[in-house]
Each structure stands twice: as structure tokens, then as C-alpha cells.
Amino acid sequence: MNDFLQVTTTTDTRDAAAKLAQSAVTARLAAGAQVSGPVTSFFWHLGEEGQGEEWQVTLKTTAARYPDLEARLRAEHPWDNPEITAVPLVTGSADYFAWLRKTVTPER
Asked: Which pLDDT score is estimated for 45?
């Protein structure tokens, strides 16, 4: 299993996206986060096709910290059933990955 993950979620406002990003980084559940947007999304919701603008939050974390990050995103997200997905970061600079691990590892 790869130890490093890129996690994404979306919200309907820049402010909501920024709050999720800042909360995760402040809690050291993510080493860094970026807010991008708006993006145009096409989706099914409550049995109907929809379209709208969303803001994307991209976070970097470790597999060990992912459960806590997901729990925080769910608790603070304005939507009842938010998209929260993670993909492995299969390669990258050793220095970056060392920084990422150190940043999200809780101090003892």
C-alpha cells in the first residue's frame, strides 16, 4: 500500500472550501491543501441530473492520517453526502515525501 495520498472534495463556495482546507492543515491532518475553482460539475443528485459551479479542495496526507482527515471533512462539510476521494501518490521527490510525513505525524 502506498503511504502518500492526494485527497479531494468539492464545495459550492470558495469560503467553504477554504475553511475545509485550513481546518485540515491546522489539525495537521494534511500537510498542505489547495483550493481551485470554480469548476463546472455535471452530476446526478436526488434522482435528477444537475450542473453547477463548485470549488475543489486538494489535500496531501498519509494513509495513516486519512481516516482522521476523512472524519474531519465529513464533520465540517456543508453537504450531507460530500465527495471525498483519495488516490495514491505513486512517486515524487524524497524530500517532499519526508516533509509530508513529518508534517502530519502527531508529536509524542
From this structure: 87
